[in-house]
Amino acid sequence: MHLREVDAYARLPLQVVGAEGNELILEGGRRLLDLYGGHCVNTLGAGDAGLGKVIQEQWKRLSFATNLVDHEPRRGFLSAFEGNLPPCDGGWSVFLANSGAEANDNALKHALAFTRRRKVVFFKGAFHGRTAAAAAVSDTKLAAFPSTPFDVVKLPWNDPEMAAKAIDTTVGAVILEPYQSLAGVTEPSMEFLNTLRRLCDRTGAVLIFDEVQTGNGRLGKPWASQHFGVVPDSFTTAKGAAGGLPIGITVIRTKMAQAVPGKLFGSTFGGGPLVLAAAAMVAHRVGQPQFLANVRATSEALKVAALRGPIASIRGAGLLLGLVVKPELKAATVRDLLLEQGVLIGTSDDPQVLRLSPALTLSPAEAPQLARALEALEVKA
Length: 381
Description:
By secondary structure, this protein is an alpha/beta fold. It has 13 helices and 14 strands.
């Protein structure tokens, strides 16, 4: 018998044997500057000594425990995480799970239970995950399931007028990524975000921000709500929240969370001590002003470095940037050529847009390597 893996990923022709800081180490010792960061996962880079020490010590002390008992890592995480949250009357409540899709499922579950409605609004270009509820509000080429678990309405991105026509008292939730990463780091206008907030206030719908990628300091602020100045009723995160360990976090205004039965939620592994010890470390680091200042400074350095050669324009914020290639080129072609120059960068669903989502520990001093790589390219359409 020969065991095969399901052919789900178009893997790059790279054999990675290790990583150090912001570099991947390949067979033979060749190194790549990693400007993709594992889809926004490697918040603190590879092999961070502080995070490694926390994980090692927690593994020896208490690696796992049922959610029927309490433990110090949970208390430590709640304290560290709370310090980064946006202001909210009545405070916030959290539920801990294992992934971004699960976190989004839980946010939607809460919103529909809270409003007692069954319609959810989402937007063209959205990606919220592959579970049944998250896939129902994702704009993907292949339908993940034959039917949706609730009624859905897909609206154009960044269109306040269409939103105003569609969001009424039959809508239970409006879910969006503050920046649509997979769609090509598409940016929202302030008019769009403010309109959604106003419409949800007027109709009683729950406004959900999917911060699986934009959260945990990636935009140069702890959360997109602080970056844009628009606070949702609920938001989610995952990916980089535990520095490389699986986690999903659903954050809900406490007054709203208390209005639905807590037993709607549950998770075997969510909120385990090992992961929460790591997540507390990440939250503590993200909460340090100098850490976020480095994100903003590195963002500016990357923008300067990237605007050359095949790159026509740049969008995004912090360390989630979309590099728009010149019209006659394809992003995948530029990605492959950059690999030859020792730089790993991501693509997106937009064939004209590359994505930068490196570790938040990347420094401005490392940005010129991207500039040199782009200048070295001879790209043909």
